[in-house]
User: What shape does this take?
Amino acid sequence: MTKVLYHNDVQEEVLQSKKIAVIGYGSQGHAHALNLKESGFDVVVGLRPGKSWDKAVEDGVQVVSVADATAQADVVMVLLPDELQPKVYEESIKPNLQPGNALAFAHGFNIHFNQIVPPDNVDVFLVAPKGPGHLVRRTFEEGAGVPALYGIYQDCSGEAKQLALAYAKGVGAGRAGILETSFQEETETDLFGEQAVLCGGLTSLVKAGFETLTEAGYQPEVAYFECLHELKLIVDLMYEGGLEGMRYSISDTAQWGDFVSGPRVVNEETKARMKEVLTDIQTGVFAKGWILENQANRPQFNAVNQKESTHPIEKVGRELRELMPFVKKQVNSKKEVVSNASN
Ligand SMILES: NC(=O)C1=CN([C@@H]2O[C@H](COP(=O)(O)OP(=O)(O)OC[C@H]3O[C@@H](n4cnc5c(N)ncnc54)[C@H](OP(=O)(O)O)[C@@H]3O)[C@@H](O)[C@H]2O)C=CC1
Ligand SMILES: CC[C@](O)(C(C)=O)C(=O)O
Ligand SMILES: [Mg+2]
Ligand SMILES: [Mg+2]
Assistant: This one.
């Protein structure tokens, strides 16, 4: 089994004498900055004036421009949206990096696909939490953590690995597990996971189930509870006990249906499509498409995002969640702003 490191396996002294600039204060940025600060590290946040800047100030974090944060820091963690990183890197980070600094990422996209080419005289490492930033923060506050991968692209100082491990421990990953990877493995598996399973696969499965039931004449509220709301409860059981743990709690009737009907829905054909998705990631076809979509100001992204927000499952879901005060909206996402504006 791959060696998984935990809190007590990691020495953090190497990072204690250093200043960390967290560039960006969004989903990952706020979690890294606050968790590292509460773990005792010296953190400055780099931003432009705006919503995130105001939030960071409100949270009591020191905030300066991206250029100033980079100039002050020894370790610069880039937590801007992937598509914006190359421009901000060229304009504000690269000119302020000092030889011997470390440049860090939470996803390998820009290094792996050569959108950012760092100088030879800095360390380059990756600490990629395997979970959404808001949960990296929430679990940390609860005394738990989200696992993370670490990887080294360039080890100029000879201490890049120790820095990456200390950083991963600082964000709380040592409580859940820290695993070694490469930039290539992290980039390709992360893109595959979010496209085929966690985000793309799941939203398509949920919508297809909801549409099948409502098109057959069943009530949208029943279809919503069945195909979306209950999903969290089922996934919580998988998180705690794997597939077996979930199957322990469901009825034998459900388990038999799982065995005979699951493979009718997700089958060899689905797996063949998954392999196509993986090939597009590995060959750079997906990355090229995403870069071009951004260069064209996201025509397809915006159109699909708008259409998705008007799907009947979203309408009925908003109404039902209003009636469940215990389902608190703890994350104000960009997508909610878009969908609320369209209502
Ligand atoms: N979201 C997640 O949970 C995960 C993300 N990652 C990776 O983490 C990185 C960050 O992603 P994510 O946290 O989702 O990003 P978000 O979109 O949530 O946050 C981006 C942050 O960057 C700031 N920003 C945007 N443009 C600029 C600019 N020109 N100058 C200064 N600041 C700017 C935004 O501030 P403003 O308010 O001013 O716009 C915001 O604080 C990516 O590499 C992503 O792949 C990895 C694992 C999981
Ligand atoms: C699953 C999506 C993710 O990879 C993540 C939260 O880990 C992302 O890029 O946001
Ligand atoms: Mg991910
Ligand atoms: Mg990702």
Q: What stands out?
A: The pocket of LWWEY6Y5 (ligand 2) is lined by residues 131-132, 190, 194, 198-199 (CB under 6 Å).
